[in-house]
Amino acid sequence: MAEEVEFVPAKLDRSSKFYVAGHRGLVGSAIWRNLEQEGFSDLVGRTSSDLDLKDRSAVFNFFAETKPRYVVLAAAKVGGILANNTFPVDFLSENLRIQVNVLDAARESGVERLLFLGSSCIYPKFAEQPIREESLLTGHLEPTNDAYAIAKISGIMHIQAVRRQYGLPWISAMPTNLYGPGDNFSPEGSHVLPALIRRYDEAARLGTPVVTNWGTGAPKREFLHVDDMAAACLHLMENYDGPSQVNVGTGTDVSIKELATLVADAVGYTGEISWDTSKPDGTPRKLLDVSKLAEAGWTSTIDLEAGIRSTVDWYRANLTQVRA
């Protein structure tokens, strides 16, 4: 075991090399934008075609050559309920390999400060609401995305193990449902909010009289704009150190029915909204307790209604390039 060395979080050196793994994804691209705005001058990113994070030797060679001082691990195979439920092996295997390769290589190359990004799906399906960090591993997971959740739980444990064995001040953050520019809007692979934006935007353009959504619309979800998430990541790297993962969210939630209405209003859809109750709802409610984040000095600033409208604007402006 490494000797315990007290680490005091402080402002990161803006001139040091900072690697954002997954810098083209929803979260990674927002983190990249935020770091640029904050004055970081030596950002490093690699596309999946340039560096396959599932290739262990390639990842170790990359870290040996670039030697970043700071890392955010935002790279992951992600998807909605349908994708997770259909391809559990892919979500488990690919995410485990990405995480193990990056974390092992980062440790060997001497990365000083690292933030691992997980997901709120790590918590039990029926965890007490709002969900505290202590709820981890206290109950059964939502079966439709348990493989992805197990991979992310393994990442949290890996961070904690590195802290114990090597004394490195690495941390984990667990965001709630994220949305914003750069999201995946495909019918098969997207999460609920971008899926609704695509569906209602198409309906508004085509004059579709009825839009039918999955489930009852009763489940409640919390949504955080990805630019808020990016700001929270840097804030945690500069202000928090501890073995526990930190929940990152707004502390408020809305029903899927309310969300559908917000999206319909944002795109200008005036038709009928119906619900296919034969389709699964997923977890009934998932609201994070963000008191630990608040204690670290950060709260979200982007209002959901305004965030949805700006995301709709981005989606329409980038319609030919979006992941759809």
Features:
globular, 324 residues, Rossmann fold, 13 strands, 14% strand, 41% helix, 10 helices, 6-stranded parallel sheet, alpha/beta, 3-stranded mixed sheet
Brief characterization of the structure:
This protein is α/β, with parallel strands linked by helices. The chain is built from ten helices and 13 strands. It is globular, with a radius of gyration of 20 Å.
Reconstruct the topology from this structure.
Elements: E1 18-21, H1 26-37, E2 43-44, H2 56-66, E3 70-73, H3 81-86, H4 88-109, E4 113-117, H5 146-166, E5 171-175, E6 177-179, H6 192-206, E7 210-214, E8 220-221, E9 223-225, H7 226-239, E10 246-248, E11 254-255, H8 256-267, E12 272-276, E13 285-286, H9 291-295, H10 304-317
Parallel strand pairs: 1-2, 1-3, 3-4, 4-5, 5-10, 6-9, 7-12, 8-13
Antiparallel strand pairs: 8-11
* Termini Cα gap: 47 Å
CATH superfamily of the domain at 18-179 and 223-251 and 286-302: NAD(P)-binding Rossmann-like Domain
> What's the SSE pattern?
EHEHEHHEHEEHEEEHEEHEEHH
The radius of gyration over CA amounts to: 20 Å
Query: What's the CATH topology name of the domain at 18-179 and 223-251 and 286-302?
Result: Rossmann fold
Strand content: 5-15%
Order of the strands making up the biggest sheet: 2-1-3-4-5-10
Largest sheet: number of strands, sense, barrel closure: 6 strands, parallel
* Name of the CATH first level of the domain at 18-179 and 223-251 and 286-302: Alpha Beta
Q: Based on helices, strands and strand pairing, what is the structural class?
A: alpha/beta
Could you name the ranges where pLDDT drops below 50 across 5 or more consecutive residues? none
Number of strands: 13
Oligomer: single chain
Count of alpha and pi helical runs = 10
| Overall morphology | globular
At CATH's second level, what is the architecture of the domain at 18-179 and 223-251 and 286-302?
3-Layer(aba) Sandwich
Helix content: 40-55%
- Give the mean pLDDT: 94
